[in-house]
Design brief:
The complex is a heterodimer of chains A (699) and B (251). Chain A has 699 residues and is of the alpha/beta class. Among the domains of chain A are: 170 residues, 3-Layer(aba) Sandwich (Rossmann fold), CATH 3.40.50; 69 residues, Helix Hairpins (Orthogonal Bundle), CATH 1.10.287. Chain A contains 33 helices and ten strands. Chain B is α+β, with helices and mostly antiparallel strands and 251 residues long. In chain B, the strands form three sheets. Chain B has a six-stranded antiparallel sheet with strand order 5-10-6-7-8-9. A two-stranded antiparallel ribbon of chain B has the order 1-2. The chains are: A alpha/beta (699), B alpha+beta (251). Chains A and B meet through helix 3, helix 9, helix 10, helix 11 and helix 17 of A and helix 8, helix 9 and strand 9 of B. The complex binds guanosine-5'-triphosphate. Guanosine-5'-triphosphate binds next to helix 1 and helix 4 of chain A.
Chain lengths: 699, 251
């Protein structure tokens, strides 16, 4: 009965930290399940927001992308610092991995340079203690001037203290006053900042920070200054002069000189507050495991075995809940259908049963697979094995313009393209990620298997069946590799992003973190099913049902002997007409309007092709084992035509779920449409070429 | 300057004619005065004097009625001009990033005046840039440089410093990080990598004087696995090339 407490203060905080420092765990500990996951507009970087209440305070939390620094080389870094510069961020919680303080505090220093109001969370404190490190946290807090809390992210340890610390920091803000460079650099920074201050428009980043970034020759800010400050030309000359001076003094280049200043500050700080160091052997267990799992000889076999288990789990264990869902939707269809009198032609009934339920059901049946797969992937990520896997296969992938971390998503694509695309989130580099996503539909997914299972036995002698299937799969892989290379030298050209990947020690993942990660990703799949896919399903239903064929009058003979009502309806409908409209294009690859119509159905989901074929050939309900359908097909087409057909279905028209997820994950329609039309064009050209050349050769 | 035959120099315009004839024969099997005139954009009548001159120099076989043929000597000269054209165009376009059309025009101009030695050095230069690991880096650097692309940050100072550093190191004969074997240790002397890679390495704490140990390599030998300041990172060999180390004695 407790009434909602009145809201006292509303504040906004941001979480910053290196990758793998346990930031996500801490974010979960703070916000519980009040989270929203999205994308920053136009790019692939994930955006997480959440909120919590602390007494009468309402606190909004932004989880920034994990970064090592705040330079402007990667989209993550640019986003992190843009968010930090927003003036409505009241407190910045810097999360640091205590077992690796020097490097983790390097980011803290940069947050202080920025003039933000920090709180430091010394995470992984359990591991650090176990490893023998002890810190005088109180002294550290005094030296730095803001609250510092030791936390254990995955267990929620220290969360309460952290919440208090955040409120204290809000009430007594600091702005990094306690950080300073060495005297030489500090004087230069001050001098430049003073020069800058009167020139800057409002609002603008703090002059001191700008001065530092100008000395670092930061590209993004240099451009900003050129655009926004009239007298910038003179400024740049001044900056260059200062840089020259400093380099002469430091006998090194400016980037190193500044980095060295930061690290010196940190080592000075740690000398004061570190009572005892981590023992050198504190990572012995993890190192021992690596000696086996990343062994030059057995490392790869173990990895492939792990992959095998993952997919076995996904597709075998996923089987029975999948059946359950299928029969649930079947039951729902019957129940809803039963509300109308038998044989009813009500469009509403058809819309609900054949359109909405069939469409959404068709996507939701994959949910068990997806949940299981994401469970496995989350385990791999949180345990630290994912980066080992990338280490093991990077050479192979890199040759094709991809990244070691592309491997798992590509493999997932053989199951289903949609989770494959979602699994590319582990790739940090935008270009690597886009390349992987764009070529992923070429990994022939599970839904395409029924098509091959129908066509191959229908057209090829049994000793050619297995090689045929193999050929189709290999074609997809080879095309993916070629396309990846092509993309990396055209649209997504550019220097490789540096492959400098941290290999965090193995950690026992917590069920909670894994469940949250799995839940968020699965949910975003379900949400797609409920929105875009629902809409497209309805459109597809309209296209295949309207306009309706007029009732056949008694004297009117069927035009074709075998034509029944369903097939007549389909060929009369929008989809049938579009099929006929597209016929000139499909003729060139050896198919007619019937195939074209069925292919339109394949856009809804690849396996729908089989059912649609059944309808256009008036065979009623058909699946991939239907012998009558095979007979009919054999009568109408040659093996060459069938092969061209399969090629087209392999390469062209990624299904609507793929288009929808691509739009979401890449952050723009541009890539989704490029993928759709690009692959369709390639698929068409390829099958036309195969058909035409094949015809010449076979004669 | 052009080429010299026994009977004097071949002028620029004669070389252009030879080039055209060669290309016509290559692409259409025959070279007719009509086609030559069309390609060079002159009247047919103006082509004849040049043809007579080329015949006198022993470079083509030509009599009014028939198709024109190249003598072996003529073919040699024509090939050379075309090769020069290709090399120059590649240099202008791929290395200097000159616009396509201008590169084509300039190559046409320069091809007649360039010495064999310069061409030879250009070819060697391409080879060098392709095989030397730093070559591609320098090319990339230049392309991404403010002098070519005004929107990008300044780069000239960085290059100058880089150059000085390189020379210094060569004299001391230290190793690249990529040359260390698993189990070997080294002290970082200098980060040669530039741009994003450099920043990333520095942010990860790979500064000069830091000790690194190569823990293992991937099954195919690349990437490599390093232990630095108590944590593990992996780098591609390509990236490890950018770090100069002093090899340490292994215990
Ligand atoms: N021992 C220990 N493990 C932790 C702690 N905090 C997080 N972990 C574990 O560390 C692993 C990585 O944690 P995440 O929260 O995913 O790390 P992150 O910084 O968000 O990593 P990215 O998602 O890669 O940016 C998980 O297995 C966590 O369970 C901690 O305080 N102590």
């Amino acid at each position: 009965m407790a009434a909602e407490k009145a809201v006292g203060k509303k504040i906004k905080i941001a979480l910053a930290g290196n990758p793998n420092c346990g930031k996500t765990s801490l974010f979960n500990a703070l916000t519980g399940t009040h989270q929203r996951v999205g994308n920053y507009p136009g790019i692939t970087v994930e955006k997480k927001e959440g909120r919590y209440r602390d007494d009468d305070w309402e606190i909004e939390v932004i989880d920034l992308p994990g970064t090592y620094s705040l330079s402007s080389y990667s989209p993550e870094e640019r986003i992190a610092r843009r968010e930090l510069l927003r003036d409505d961020i009241d407190v910045v919680v810097v999360v640091a991995d205590s077992t690796n303080l020097e490097r983790n505090l390097y980011l803290l220093v940069q947050v202080m340079e920025l003039g933000a109001n920090p709180v430091l969370a010394l995470n992984m404190s359990d591991e650090a203690h176990a490893g023998g490190q002890r810190l005088d946290v109180e002294l550290m807090s005094m030296l730095l001037g803001f609250p510092i809390v030791e936390t254990v992210g995955h267990k929620g340890g220290g969360a309460k203290l952290l919440r208090e610390a955040i409120r204290r920091a809000y009430d007594n803000p600091t702005h990094g006053e306690r950080f300073s460079f060495g005297p030489q650099l500090e004087r230069t920074v001050m001098r430049l900042a003073e020069k800058l201050a009167p020139l800057l428009p409002q609002p603008s980043p703090p002059p001191r920070w700008l001065a530092i970034k100008l000395l670092e020759r930061d590209g993004e800010l240099g451009q900003w200054l050129r655009d926004n400050v009239a007298e910038s030309a003179g400024l740049f000359t001044d900056v260059e002069k200062e840089i020259e001076e400093l380099e002469k003094f430091g006998r090194t280049d400016i980037i190193l000189f500044i980095a060295d200043n930061r690290y010196s500050f940190l080592s000075g700080l740690l000398r004061e507050v570190r009572i005892s160091e981590m023992r050198a052997d504190s990572r012995a267990t993890s190192d021992f495991v690596d000696a086996i799992l990343c062994n030059r000889i057995v490392g790869l076999p173990i990895f492939f075995a792990a992959m095998y288990v993952l997919f076995w789990l996904t597709f075998t264990v996923g089987e029975w809940p999948m059946r359950l869902i299928e029969s649930f939707f079947g039951y729902l269809g019957n129940t809803i259908g039963g509300l109308w009198p038998a044989g009813s032609e009500s469009p509403l009934r058809s819309l609900l049963v054949d359109g909405v339920l069939a469409g959404v059901g068709g996507v939701l049946v994959f949910l068990p697979n997806i949940i299981l797969l994401f469970f496995g992937l989350a385990l791999m990520e949180d345990s630290g094995y994912m980066s080992r896997a990338a280490f093991l296969v990077d050479r192979f992938m890199h040759r094709f313009g991809l990244h070691g971390k592309s491997f798992v998503p590509m493999l997932t694509g053989f199951g289903c393209t949609v989770p494959g695309i979602m699994a590319t989130r582990t790739l940090e580099n935008e270009r690597d990620r886009l390349t992987t996503m764009l070529v992923l539909p070429l990994m022939s997914c599970g839904a395409r298997l029924p098509i091959y299972m129908l066509l191959i036995p229908a057209f090829f002698a049994s000793r050619w069946q297995a090689p045929m299937l193999f050929l189709i799969y290999m074609t997809g892989i080879v095309l993916a590799v070629l396309l990846a290379r092509l993309l990396r030298s055209t649209l997504l050209a550019g220097e490789d992003a540096p492959f400098v990947m941290e290999l965090p020690p193995y950690r026992l993942p917590t069920l909670r973190a894994v469940a949250i990660k799995m839940g968020q990703r699965s949910w975003s799949y379900v949400r797609k099913a409920g929105t875009i896919i629902l809409a497209i399903s309805i459109l597809m239903w309209v296209a295949t049902s309207f306009p309706r064929a007029p009732e056949r009058s008694v004297e009117q003979e069927p035009i074709l002997a075998y034509e029944d009502d369903a097939s007549r309806d389909l060929s009369y409908s929008l989809a049938g007409r579009m099929g006929k409209l597209l016929e000139p294009l499909t003729t060139m690859m050896g198919s007619d309007y019937r195939i074209a119509t069925a292919m339109l159905g394949a856009f809804a989901a690849k396996e729908v092709f089989v059912a649609q074929l059944g309808i256009v050939f008036s065979l009623g309900e058909a699946d991939e084992t239907s012998t009558s359908l095979r007979e009919t097909l054999r009568r109408h087409y040659t093996p060459l035509q069938a092969f061209a057909m399969m090629l087209f279905l392999l390469v062209a028209t990624p299904c609507m779920a793929t288009v929808a997820i691509m739009r979401k994950e890449s952050g723009s329609w541009k890539w989704a449409l490029l993928q759709f039309f690009g692959l369709t064009t390639i698929g068409w050209l390829l099958s036309v070429a195969v058909y035409q050349i094949g015809r010449l050769v076979i004669g | 300057m052009g080429h010299h035959t026994n009977d004097g120099p071949i002028t620029e315009s004669l070389e252009d004619y030879l080039e055209t004839i060669y290309e016509l024969i290559r692409d259409k099997q025959v070279a007719r005065v009509k086609d030559i005139a069309k390609i060079r954009g002159v009247r047919m009548a103006s082509v004849s004097p040049a043809m007579h001159r080329l015949r006198d120099l022993g470079l083509i076989v030509y009599n009014q009625r028939e198709y024109i043929q190249l003598t072996p000597k003529g073919e040699q000269v024509a090939r050379k001009v075309i090769a020069h054209h290709e090399i120059l165009r590649r240099f202008l376009r791929d290395f200097l990033h000159v616009d396509k059309k201008i590169a084509e025009q300039d190559a046409c101009q320069i091809e007649h005046h360039i010495s064999d030695q310069t061409i030879d050095r250009l070819v060697r230069f391409f080879e060098f840039m392709d095989t030397c690991p730093l070559g591609s880096q320098v090319q990339e650097m230049f392309k991404n440089c403010s002098e070519v692309n005004p929107e990008l940050p300044a780069c000239m100072e960085e290059c100058a410093r880089y150059d000085a550093q390189m020379r210094l190191e060569h004299e001391q004969g230290n190793s690249l990080l990529s040359e260390l074997e698993p189990g070997e240790k080294g002290k970082i002397l200098h980060i040669k990598a530039l741009g994003a890679l450099r920043q990333r390495l520095i942010d990860m704490g790979l500064l000069p004087q830091t000790m690194v140990e190569v823990e293992r390599v991937a099954p195919s030998g690349d990437p490599i696995w390093l232990k630095v300041r108590g944590f593990n990172i992996s780098l591609r060999k390509q990236e490890a090339n950018g770090i100069l180390v002093e090899r340490q004695a292994t215990a």
